[in-house]
Write a structure and sequence with these properties.
Length: 160
C-alpha cells in the first residue's frame, strides 16, 4: 500500500488507479551485448538485441535504428523476390547494426564507469574533460551528433 501511494504521489492520475499484480522485484541495470542478433527466421531488435545503462538515454534511439534497418533490408529482399527469412538477408541486417550498437554500448558503458569513480581527483578530471568538450566546438558537435543518432549509415525511415 505504501509503495502504491508513493507511485501515485509521483505520477498523479496519469495511469488511473494502480494495483500490484505480483510481488515487487528489481533487476539491476547491466551491459548486455551479443554479436549474434539473427538466427533461423529470427531477428532481434531493441532491448532484446542489446541492454545498456540509461545514462545517456540511447536505448530507444538504438532500437528505432534497428527497426529502420530491418525494415529497409526486408523491403529490399521483397523487391528482389527473396524469402524474407533467408539467412543472407538477415545477416545483412546483423552486419549493418553491429558497429553502431557496439559503439553506442561501449560509449554508454564507459561513461557509466567514468562517472562511477569516486573521489575528488576523479571528479576534477571529469569536470576538466566536460569543460574541454564544451569549449571545443567540433568535439561537442561530434558528441551531439552521436547522441542524436545522426551519424553513420542511417536507415531511410529515420532520415525524415
Ligand atoms: C530508467 C531508464 C531510462 C531510460 N531513458 C531513456 C532515454 O532517455 N532515451 C532512450 O532512448 N532510451 C531510454 N531508456 C531505454 C528505453 O526505455 C529502452 O531501450 C526501450 O524501451 C526498449 O524498447 P523495446 O521495445 O525494445 O523493449 P521494452 O520497452 O522493454 O518492451 C518490451 C515489451 O515486451 C513485453 N514482454 C516481455 N516479455 C514478454 C512476453 N513473454 N510476452 C509478451 N510480452 C512480453 C514487456 O512487458 C514490454 O512491454 C531508458 C531505460 C531505463 C530503464
Amino acid at each position: 500500500r505504501a509503495f502504491l501511494a508513493e507511485v501515485h504521489k509521483r505520477m498523479g492520475d496519469l495511469l488511473g488507479e494502480l494495483t500490484l499484480n505480483s510481488a515487487r522485484s528489481s533487476w539491476p541495470l547491466s551491459f548486455q551485448h551479443t554479436a549474434k542478433i539473427v538466427d533461423h527466421r529470427l531477428a532481434l531488435v531493441g532491448d532484446s538485441a542489446h541492454g545498456m545503462h540509461p545514462i545517456a538515454g540511447q536505448g530507444l534511439n538504438l532500437g528505432l535504428r534497428d527497426v529502420g534497418a530491418l525494415v529497409e533490408v526486408l523491403d529490399e529482399a521483397l523487391r528482389l523476390g527473396l524469402d524474407l527469412g533467408d539467412a543472407q538477408v538477415l545477416k545483412k541486417y546483423e552486419e549493418w547494426r553491429a558497429l553502431d550498437s557496439l559503439m553506442v554500448m561501449g560509449a554508454t558503458d564507459s561513461l557509466t564507469r567514468i562517472f562511477g569513480i569516486r573521489g575528488k581527483t576523479a571528479s576534477a578530471l571529469r569536470r576538466f574533460g566536460m569543460d574541454g568538450i564544451q569549449r571545443t566546438s567540433w568535439l561537442k558537435g561530434f558528441f551531439m551528433n552521436e547522441a542524436r543518432g545522426v551519424s553513420g549509415q542511417l536507415p531511410e525511415l529515420l532520415k525524415a
